[in-house]
Design goal:
Blueprint lengths: L13 H6 L3 H12 L3 H10 L7 E6 L6 H14 L4 E7 L7 H6 L12 E7 L11 H10 L4 E5 L16 E6 L4 H8 L8 E4 L7 H13 L10 E2 L2 H17 L3 H29 L3 H11 L5 H15 L1
Parallel strand pairs: 1-4, 1-5, 2-3, 2-4, 5-6, 6-7
Length: 317
């Protein structure tokens, strides 16, 4: 029986139902971590030893280049290979508006009723870098529920999506011919991120010149043991992803990537929580308000004010 189709009793613990492939339990778990509910973090702690089996594939690139179309094609390809798929799309607005899931991701509609596919939109809630704070937690829950390929799609803000490398085993950069912004993004440093580059909508007359320009930019970069393929169609990107994943497994770098990703996730979560703790402890503090007022009046620079706040924090301990 395919994972997710079995009937599970609602009386069973949430973690047990999730591990059995229950889609409702997975949805509930993601909602808990997205809302920073303590029950969500407890769930992740419980299922964490059962994770690490899924391939995590990140998709980034400027808006309108066809990332959702590509996700649909890859989901179809994975299902034809009888692989379970989880799709996590990071949306800049509320996931409850249905704008992203039923609008931009309409090409995934063929898979909504497929028990082997789970699709979820998650609000970035202002998180820098294009990924929601709870994205990795949601991906871990998908992993534990039996999804073998987890596709992470960012909000599509281009250059600011750097933190997708902190989540994915393989990063796919999606570009479109005729977009000057795309090539500028490459030159600005995003070219260091992708493992696979896809030029979507490849029937465009400027496709050939764009591919040449991308290869030219790549040639200026440092020599690596992996040559980033520049693919023209969504039909071939699956091959590029499979080849890259096989390469990092054989080279022994998959575990190194995951180690780096998890360490960065720990530091990122700690930084977010420290900021919230600092904001709570300083709220309503008259001395702090006076300090900030000095910054506003240009009597004190922001860096010096920040250092004074940290000294005060250390003194309180």
């Amino acid at each position: 029986m395919e994972a997710g189709t079995e009937k599970t009793s609602p009386e069973l613990p949430l973690a047990e139902r999730l591990l059995s492939g229950d889609k409702r339990a997975l949805a509930r778990g993601i909602t808990l971590v997205e809302n920073s509910d303590p029950a969500g973090w407890a769930l992740v702690r419980e299922i964490y030893p059962r994770t690490g089996k899924a391939r995590m594939i990140g998709f980034t690139g400027p808006p309108g280049v066809g990332k959702s179309t590509l996700l649909g094609a890859l989901t179809k390809h994975a299902r034809s290979c009888d692989r379970e798929v989880g799709v996590l799309s990071i949306d800049p607005s509320s996931p409850f508006t249905q704008g992203a899931l039923l609008g931009d991701r309409i090409r995934l509609s063929d898979h909504f009723l497929d028990e082997g596919v789970y699709i979820r939109s998650m609000a970035s809630r202002g998180a820098l870098g294009g990924m929601a704070e709870a994205a990795l937690q949601a991906a871990l829950l998908m992993d534990a529920s039996g999804k073998q390929d987890i596709l992470l799609e960012t909000v599509g803000v281009g250059q600011a999506e750097i933190d997708i490398i902190d989540h994915a085993d393989t990063v796919v950069l999606v570009l479109m011919p005729g977009s000057g912004d795309s090539v500028q993004a490459l030159k600005a440093g995003i070219m260091e991120i992708p493992d696979v580059i896809v030029v979507n909508k490849a029937r465009h007359p400027l496709t050939d010149s764009m591919v040449r320009e991308i290869k030219g930019v790549l040639a200026l970069g440092p020599h690596m043991d992996w040559t980033v393929p520049v693919l023209r169609t969504e039909a071939t990107v699956g091959t590029g992803i499979d080849e890259h994943y096989a390469h990092i497994e054989q080279a022994g770098t998959l575990e190194d990537r995951r180690r780096r990703n998890l360490m960065n996730e720990v530091l990122g979560l700690a930084a977010v929580r420290l900021r919230r703790e600092l904001e709570r402890s300083l709220a309503g503090d008259q001395d702090v308000q006076e300090l900030l007022e000095r910054v506003v009046k240009r009597e004190l620079d922001p860096a010096s004010a920040a250092e004074l706040l940290l000294e005060r924090r250390r003194g309180d301990r």
